[in-house]
């Protein structure tokens, strides 16, 4: 399961895949794909918060265990 999810507030800026290509990939429709491979990347709470802050639309959320 990926560490993050992207919700419908995404405005397709591409910032997430630009800033963190290890976690997000820009899809053909411009919406990001959250990479499953990112689940194995060790991150502190502060680093997770930095990823959430990348998105100008607030569309990146931290995934919970049942998402
Ligand atoms: S940074 Fe936010 S708005 Fe931009 S593509 Fe990623 S999720 Fe969408």
Describe this protein's structure:
This protein is of the alpha+beta class and 67 residues long. It has a single domain (4-62), classed as 2-Layer Sandwich (Alpha-Beta Plaits), CATH 3.30.70. The protein is built from two helices and four strands; from the N terminus they run E-H-E-E-H-E. It has a two-stranded antiparallel ribbon. Strand 2 (24-26) and strand 3 (32-34) form a beta hairpin. The protein is globular and about 30 Å long. The relative contact order is 0.34. The structure holds iron/sulfur cluster. Iron/sulfur cluster is lined by residues 6, 10-16, 32, 54-55, 57, 59-60.
Q: Which residue ranges are poorly predicted, with pLDDT under 50 across at least 5 consecutive positions?
A: none
Helix tally? Answer: 2
User: What is the CA-atom radius of gyration, in angstroms?
Assistant: 11 Å
Number of strands: 4
CATH topology: Alpha-Beta Plaits
The H-and-E topology, N to C, reads as EHEEHE
The helix/strand class is: alpha+beta
Give the second-level CATH assignment, the architecture: 2-Layer Sandwich
